[in-house]
Write a structure and sequence with these properties.
single chain; 57 residues; alpha+beta; 4-stranded antiparallel beta sheet; 1 helix
């Protein structure tokens, strides 16, 4: 079975429904706003999270 895998600002992620799981650490995962997000939507979502985190540092 092929896994859906994309590269985000947080690294490579495996996408399973509405969850993104880090390839580097399967104990690190993120809930996505909804299932069936496109790869670009997921990348944009993580980019926004990253920018918000950087602003609050």
């Amino acid at each position: 079975m092929n896994q859906r895998r994309i590269t985000t600002v947080y690294g490579d992620m495996i996408i399973e429904k509405d969850v993104a799981i880090s390839v580097a650490d399967d104990n690190c995962w993120y809930s996505l706003p909804h299932e069936n997000m496109t790869n670009d939507e997921i990348k944009d979502y993580f980019r926004i999270l990253w920018e918000e985190f950087e602003e609050n540092e």
